[in-house]
Structure of tRNA N6-adenosine threonylcarbamoyltransferase:
Amino acid sequence: NPEVFILAIESSCDDTAAAVLQNDKVLSNVVANQLIHTQYGGVVPELASRAHQQNIVPVVAAALKNANIKKQQLSAIAFTQGPGLMGSLLVGSSFAKSLALALGIPLIAVNHMQAHVLAHFITEDGYEKPTFPFLALTISGGHTQIIKVTDFFDMTVIGETTDDAVGEAFDKSAKILGLPYPGGPLIDKYAQLGNPKAFTFTKPKVPGLNFSFSGLKTAILYFIQKKKLENPAFVDENLNDICASIQYTIIEILMDKLKLAVKETGITQIAIGGGVSANSGIRNTLKTAENRYGWKTFIPKFEYTTDNAAMIGIVGYQKFLTRTFETSAVVSRARIQL
Ligand code: KG4
Ligand code: ZN
């Protein structure tokens, strides 16, 4: 079998990313984060699109250079078709289309959410791959889904958020506490020093496998406002305990649904992905669940779990094997089903 070299491009939200894969191994994985959004407390679509335009050429050049690959050696170009911000997606797709056309090589369209799931199939020392069927829990700033994965491109969403994503729950809670965006990693950091049982927040009652996080945000807001009236320094004095309690509640919400999903499907392999899977509390809880419930859990290497192009590349490789190519007429989609 000849070697396949895929250049992958991801530009669905606020990170401009490019990667080169040799078959299912990652040769390079470059991400340019857009720090511009920090001051606005969230991603500003217009600014994201403009930053992608500035970043895309140097990021792709760096990916090729780090992989020690010339563009003439590439077998195909994979790009994120959606879901995501339209203005951001268009920068990646236009670039991918032009380059594929210029080089006369196939163009491959990738679903960003499938990519978060299939990132587990990147061959990496020290990381095991799940076998079909497995359950994927994708938790990011934009998504919260439990997916039943039967084959590479046979996936069904069996549970998802009805309002905010888990990452938003972290980020919005952090904002209430006066922490900078994105606050998820900071909550994680302070939570490690706090008591998760210090404060209690009621968990939402959502039937079945769906999630809801907007109520939690409101509960936290009222709680903090009330405590601050009693003691203006409440947040400063209790930051670790507050963060630990918020994080504990979020993890409980996720675990309750995972347990139900395992019960309903009989599947005990759990693969997590998305930026929030970096959370140390979630990682520890899942490791504990392996012994407690007999689950097998899979957590990809950190750089493949937040938004990245390597995960787009591994899907590109799978689609290359089945010759699932697109013409330049393929359109970007802000919303796209699995
Ligand atoms: O997958 P990602 O990089 O981008 C998308 O949203 O697609 O995820 C970003 C999200 C943000 O909400 C960020 O706060 C959250 O992941 N996040 C974390 C941690 N690291 C990143 N949340 C909690 N704990 C962390 N350690
Ligand atoms: Zn993502």
